[in-house]
Structures are given as structure tokens and as C-alpha cells.
Amino acid sequence: MATLKSGDAFPSDVVFKYIPWSEESGDIKACGIPINYNASKEWAGKKVVLFSVPGAFTPTCSVNHMPGYIKNLPQLRAKGVDIVAVVAFNDPFVMSAWGKANEVRRDEILFLSDPDAQFSKSIGWADEASGRTSRYAIVIDHGKVSYAQIETERGAVKKSGADAVLASL
To answer: Where are the domains of the chain?
Structure first.
């Protein structure tokens, strides 16, 4: 597939790995059980913000990228966003722990795993050198992409940050 762009239909076969948040597995040391998360199906009739980071627990991702989304959740909801999700190449256990470390509860933000950066590769937005997911943001509005931007500058959070996404809504 070519690079995803505004106006495109969101692909119909996107499946991530995911560990749902629960009270029982809310402790960072609790593992939980990974399940498939069929994003294409779950997001079909919703407005979704999906942002991607190269890796959980990394400096730019943890200090500059994630906090903006946590802070701006109320503003995103006010703009009609039903789901906010972050994706990285990390396994679902790491993504779940990253959510817990950021004190995100009750799936306020979904922490999804893109194993082997399969989705990111399918849209042309995986880092070729490392094989990781690139830093990008996509807004999907009832199955149509309304915003799709990738960071081209290493360590930058200009096009994929919560402020840029909010400005696009």
C-alpha cells in the first residue's frame, strides 16, 4: 500500500496486539493476556486519533509525545474523538506497562502493539534502518483518513503531537 493520506479509506485489515486494561491487571507488574485488536472493525463508525512512536519508554516518546495526548484528552473528546490510540513496534506487554507507567486507566488511551511494524510498513511509515514504527499521527473519521502526517525530523513532535492533531480537527 502507498503512504496513507487525507481522503483515503482506512485499510480494512488492520489488526494490532493489545492487553485490555482491567482493575485486576492495573498494577504495572501484572502481565495481562494479549488479544488481537481489529482496529478496522472497532474503528469503523468512530472518530479515532492514532499516533505512533518509535518505542515505548524512550525519551522523546515518554517526555515529549505521550504527555501531550494525556493532557489533551478532554480537548480531543470535546472535538468528537471517540478513541485515542498509540502504537509502537514493542510487544503488547511493554505497551501495557507503558500505559500503566503513564497512569492511563480504563483504556482512556489504547496502547497497541504493531508487531514487526506490520501496519506501519503497510502504509510506508516504518523506519527502514531499525524496522521500528515511525513517529506519525493519523485521524480516522468514520473509516476515512482526515489527517495523516509523519515526522521527518528525528526527535521532533511537530506534526504528530496532540497540538497538531487538535488543530486539524
So the answer is: 15-168
Q: 61, 81, 140, 150: which is the annotated catalytic residue? A: 61
Rounded Cα–Cα distance for residues 162 and 67 (Å) = 9
Query: Average per-residue pLDDT in the chain?
Result: 93
Could you tell me how far CA 96 lies from the centroid of its own chain?
A: 12
Domain spanning 15-168, CATH architecture: 3-Layer(aba) Sandwich (3.40)
Q: How would residue 107 be classed by pLDDT, with cut points 50, 70 and 90?
A: confident
* Predicted TM-score (pTM) of this structure: 0.94
Q: How far is CA 98 from CA 29, 92, 130, in A?
A: 11, 10, 21
Query: Distance between CA atoms of 133 and 113, rounded to whole angstroms?
Result: 10
Q: 110: which strand partners?
A: 85
Q: Is 31 a catalytic residue?
A: no
Selection from 41, 22, 43, 40 nearest residue 32 by Cα: 22
